[in-house]
Amino acid sequence: METIRKNDFSQGSIAKNILSLAIPLTVAQLTVVLYNVVDRAFIGHIDAVGRDAFTGIGLVMPITYIINAFANLCGTGGAPLCAIARGRGDDKKAARIMGVSFTFLLLLGAALTALFYLFHEPFLYLVGGSPETVFHAKQYLLIYLAGIIPVMIGLGMNPFINAQGFGKTGMMTTLLGAVINLILDPLFIFVLHMGVRGAALATVIAQACSAVWALAFLTGKKAILRLDRSSLGLDVKILKRICGLGLTGFTFSVTNSVVQALGNAQLQAYGAAAGMGDLYVAAMTAIVSVREIIFQPIRGLTQGAQPVIGYNYGAGQYSRVRKSIQFLTAACLTYNLVIWLLVLAFPHVFILLFNEDPALLEVGVKTMRIYYAAYVMMSFQMIGQNTFVALGRARMAVFFSLLRKAALVVPMMLLLPRLWGLGAYGVFASEPVSDAVGGIACYTTMMLTVWREMKQPDVPPGANQEEPVEA
Predict the structure, then answer these.
(1) pLDDT tens across 153-189, in order?
(2) Cα separation, 42 vs 59, whole angstroms
(3) What is the C-alpha separation between 28 and 22, in angstroms, rounded?
(4) Which end of the chain has fewer CB atoms within 10 angstroms, the N or the C?
């Protein structure tokens, strides 16, 4: 008699399977963002120095994106491969993939910690810092760097919890840390008068708690795939596949870092003559912070769909892959359309979350409407790109990640400020161009390739499946 597999995504409602992972994952993603956004909100309201301190945290953001990039390299690279291996019934290989990812994660975390401790100050000036803002940035960063390995464990290993179908446990990984951070931030910043240093210390403690929770589950009895000594160590063949597929999440975060760094530098340069360089950087920090928050439900939906798509692909249930893409498209477009209209209609509400300075509010409202002009088109980018990841199509996923940021945003940030007297506003205008062009290109390609391929007949249950090879 055939054994019934736990968390079998080839059975039941597609929408229910995706949402059972996506809802907890969305909560988890939002709480990850809260680590940084809550810090910025509290820091922005510190008496007398709030705006400069808030701007200083904006200089740290490119570093946090780089840390996230390497966590994504392991997590978003290994977790879809685990889902595909589980779909094929090879749990032993799935566990080995997880162990290799964890080993590599620790090595990367140690290297990044050393690198940023050595070169943090020149980096902060390179990304648009001034003496006033770098002062606050260093106070935060030198403490935050102590938490690099814990944050990478939390971010990099949580996808493996979700890939096994334990969405609620994955949600708790980050919810635990976010609650602790939310409690400790006002205590350290305002009650103990630690200021920016207090925000950093609260974040490090919270990240450590999340990491401990994730490791406790993955090494415990409830996990389907356990992280134990036999699964640890490096395997060149597996590592190549992890890095190949993880390049999508990696390039997404790295290019975010490059764009944020270049944007800050351009804003500082074009605003310097009028003495508004720090003001423009503060506006960009607020706008990107808002985007981090409103973007997470889309990220949760698309990443929640990855194990379902990958499992059904591995099991040869191609009709269910198509249904997953259809559901994902409808859900993402509906959500993003509502959010898009709210941001354009009430930008001042979002700016006030971080600072009440009248000059920042005036500039922030104008630049936010420019930046979000085509935000709804990002839906197509995320649907297409995450579908490629779920199916192990690393080259396509990486290509479209690089297209949007490296090939579109970066050149636009350099070109638009020089045209039509746009100046600093041209930096903000580069984002809607990339949202529209990148989104249309990615989704159209996915429909012309993956969608057509998934029209083949389903494989009968129990038939032997060859390991999928990237097209």
Answers:
(1) 888 888 888 777 777 787 777 778 878 888 898 898 8
(2) 16
(3) 9
(4) N
| Domain range list for the chain | 14-453
Range in 29-33, 116-120, 286-290, 356-360 the model is least confident about: 29-33
| Structure token pair of residue 245 | 């597929």
Cβ partners under 8 Å of residue 90, min gap 6? none
Place of tokens 């978003």: 76
And the tokens for 313?
């692909």
Location of structure tokens 């006033």: 132
Provide the whole-model pTM.
0.69
Give, in order, the Cα–Cα distances in Å from 350 to each of 2, 17, 38, 72, 270. 54, 33, 13, 28, 25
Burial-class residue 260 by CB neighbours within 10 Å (0-12, 13-18, 19+).
Answer: buried
Query: What DSSP line would sit under 390-437, residue for residue?
Result: HTT-HHHHHHHHHIIIIIIIHHHHHHGGGSTT-THHHHHHHHHHHHHH
- Biggest CA–CA distance in the chain, Å, is 77
CA separation, residue 244 to residues 90, 258, 325, 389 (Å): 21, 21, 23, 10
Contact predicate 402/255, CB 8 Å: yes
Percentage with pLDDT > 70 across the chain:
91
